[in-house]
């Protein structure tokens, strides 16, 4: 086993590595963690997306935009590239030293901190030393930057990094850039937290009520755009320029600012377009993410059933066919009562006008026609009434011939048969008391409309 366990060892000592173990900072751990989290959600969505059969475009675009906006909000809140500057300098590594080192320095200003990087670069045959720094100075509190600067002096950081940190740590007149950047960071941070809350509510409403989800999407985009506008307006009026040996740092807007602006514009435009489409064509925007999608409780199914019921009710009211309807309200009852009275008066006028126009039609013939089931001009058919002849010798109505005689005084009064009248005394009577009218009207359980009208005209 010799040579297997003693590899890279000298005389049984610990393993000796031929290169140093120190590595420069290559990325922010928090940003990487957030990116991996959102990437996991998106990959899971892409796995199940081939099974989506309906609303593919709206579902894909909605989920993609939602995850993109949420990722951008968290990344820009944690990122360090709102205001950035890079330059190449030839400056001493430590103060009061004549030895100068060509290097590249960068400053990345975030919302609650500033990152300063320093990397040595080789020039010609000169080999660059192992210099690769990335120092973060936080300013969440009013005095945090000054405390961090004193700690950097104590640790002996390179002179170019200390020079940049000194510009942000001073709060005197003419050196107030640190306070102004901190105020702009406070404002942008508050707006981003508000945007995150709006984004969460947007996702919840897209699942429950897509229309209000579109409204919240437009509001989220407006908050993001307002964050960019507010941060730009709160930047120092006098731009910060840091002078170093061999170069100077001039700041410009970084990728965090532009990424947030793109996300805000996309979110706002999509929210406004969906809102306009929903107002012009209601209930058309939907995704498969809705709570009751594809079930009997789906809002599209409920709307279709309610529209069918509405059309069926209209057909029932117009055709006179029987059907189950919801109990009408007070306004519907009043309108129905008025329309029924107008219809009754119209039918009565048509009935009497038609009978008065026919000179050769007698009262007995009219009674016989009504008894045989033929449709009388001006009348209407009631399918719910069964016109069977009762077994009782009393036929209803009793005074059809006398009523026609009263309407046409010139016509000759005819005697009806025994089945058409109750007795000769009843045939000769024309005037009936109101009490008898009420009793005759209630003899049958559901009398036809035309016969009730005839009783009321007695």
TrEMBL record:
InterPro entries: Dual_oxidase_maturation_fac. The chain crosses the membrane at residues 29-50, 57-75, 190-209, 215-234, 255-281. Its main location: membrane. Pfam families: DuoxA (PF10204). It comes from the Eukaryota. Keywords: Glycoprotein, Membrane, Transmembrane, Transmembrane helix. GO terms for cellular component: endoplasmic reticulum membrane. The keyword Glycoprotein applies. It is a multi-pass membrane protein. The keyword Glycoprotein applies. It is found in: Membrane. GO terms for biological process: protein transport. Belongs to the DUOXA family. This is Dual oxidase maturation factor 1. It comes from Bactrocera dorsalis. The gene is DOXA1.
């Amino acid at each position: 086993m010799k040579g297997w366990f003693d590899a890279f060892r000298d005389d049984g000592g610990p393993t000796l590595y031929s290169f140093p173990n120190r590595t420069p900072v290559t990325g922010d751990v928090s940003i990487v963690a957030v990116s991996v989290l959102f990437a996991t959600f998106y990959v899971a969505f892409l796995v199940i997306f081939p099974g989506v059969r309906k609303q593919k475009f709206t579902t894909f675009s909605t989920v993609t935009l939602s995850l993109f906006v949420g990722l951008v909000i968290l990344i820009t809140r944690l990122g360090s590239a709102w205001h950035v500057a890079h330059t190449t300098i030839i400056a001493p590594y430590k103060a009061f030293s004549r030895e100068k080192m060509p290097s590249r320095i960068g400053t990345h200003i975030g919302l609650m901190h500033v990152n300063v990087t320093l990397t040595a670069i080789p020039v010609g045959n000169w080999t660059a030393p192992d210099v690769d720094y990335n120092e973060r100075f936080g300013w969440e509190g009013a005095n945090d930057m000054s405390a961090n600067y004193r700690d950097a002096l104590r640790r002996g950081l390179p002179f170019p990094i200390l020079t940049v940190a000194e510009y942000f740590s001073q709060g005197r007149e003419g050196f107030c850039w640190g306070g102004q950047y901190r105020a702009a960071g406070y404002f942008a941070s508050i707006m981003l937290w508000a945007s995150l809350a709006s984004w969460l509510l947007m996702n919840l409403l897209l699942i429950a009520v897509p229309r209000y989800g579109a409204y919240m999407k437009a509001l989220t985009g407006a908050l993001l755009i307002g964050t960019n506008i507010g941060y730009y307006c709160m930047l120092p009026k006098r731009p910060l320029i840091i002078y170093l040996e061999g170069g100077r740092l001039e700041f410009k807007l970084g990728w965090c600012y532009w990424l947030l602006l793109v996300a805000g514009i996309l979110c706002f435009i999509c929210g406004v377009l969906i809102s306009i489409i929903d107002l012009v064509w209601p209930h058309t925007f939907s995704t498969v993410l809705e709570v009751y999608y594809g079930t009997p409780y789906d809002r599209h199914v409920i709307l279709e059933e309610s529209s069918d019921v509405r059309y069926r009710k209209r057909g029932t009211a117009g055709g006179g066919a029987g059907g189950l309807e919801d109990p009408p309200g007070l306004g519907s009852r009043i309108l129905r009562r008025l329309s029924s009275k107008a219809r009754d008066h119209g039918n009565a006028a048509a009935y009497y006008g038609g009978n008065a126009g026919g000179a050769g039609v007698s009262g007995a013939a009219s009674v016989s026609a009504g008894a045989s089931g033929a449709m009388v001009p001006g009348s209407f058919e009631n399918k719910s009434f069964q016109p069977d002849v009762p077994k009782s010798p009393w036929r209803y109505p009793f005074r059809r011939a006398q009523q026609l005689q009263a309407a046409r005084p010139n016509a000759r009064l005819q005697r009806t048969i025994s089945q058409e009248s109750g007795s000769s005394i009843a045939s000769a009577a024309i005037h009936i008391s109101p009490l008898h009218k009420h009793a005759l009207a209630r003899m049958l359980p559901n009398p036809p409309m035309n016969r009730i009208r005839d009783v009321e005209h007695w």
